[in-house]
Specification:
disordered C terminus
Amino acid sequence: MNWQTVRKVVKTKRFQACFVLIVLAALVFFGRDHLHFIGDGWRGLRDADFRWVLAAIVLVGLSMMAQAEVMVVLLRTAGVNVKRRAVNVLGLAANAWSSSFPGGPALSVAMIFREQMKWGATPVIASWYMILSGALAGAGMAVLALGSVFFLGLTVKPVTLALSLVGLLALAFATNWVAKHPEQVEAWLVARARTFNSWRNQPEDRFTPAIESFSDQLSAVELPLNKLTAAIFYSMMNWALEIACLLACIMAIGGEPPIAGVVLSFLASKLVGQVQVTPGGLGTVDVALTTSLVGLAAMTSVHAFAAVLVYRMLNFFGLTLVGWLVYFGAKLAKPVLDTEPLHSDEAKDSSAA
């Protein structure tokens, strides 16, 4: 078997799917000491109120749909005609990658970036989406946290809330200004590049073609107010539905905590989960969420631990399992993720044939 044949085999979807399965199997084998979590969680689900568990399942599904809708709004605003179904498939698959490996969020970001490029997004648009969606998520977390502190009876100055949103608004304003003035941006970048090349004794226009291409892409990232409002709404709904899922899990085991305390507990666990040293933050997130529910939501340690088990079984294990099923289904059965739009030249050739 020559090198070209090997490369063709490696690029096949079946080989890639089998390789991922082997990696997952190895991960499960080396992490078998933590698999008692599944047994404990299953027993917690059996003892919980089924009606609230069913509500939690619906809520976590809606939260993933809201997250996908943020991508739909932003990419369509930038001129990328994405299909809502494909975005939802990508969201579930990317979440599975993110929660299954240590450092998984980085793998998830790379996967999303690659698929957006296949859908027709330029590197500038894909990067713009990553930055803006992150800013939306951060602003949403800040608003929820400040609102919870307010309802717990602590003092929140209006300027604090304003500062939590100013970064997002500044980013949106800068994006729109750049999209409306690409010629000015191009001229400034070309001038800086020529100065740098002159200092390095290089041809002064060696970066000019790349800058002109970059400038053309900038004009596509304008974000009108109505689209920004829609993106903010869906980003906030993603957080709100996840919190509602946690609250439903608490109600499923008979708890009745203050909503503000649950919100702060949820956000505290999310901050801990940003440093993902274990798959899905297994262990660290569970401890942080249990501890914060005891301290902030006035729950007993027994009830908090039971609620966290139920919540993590749905939001972590269940959602990850669904994500992998969707991923392998897309890879092997009907490859939604790998469907690339035909370019105009290719479309003409196919119609002519």
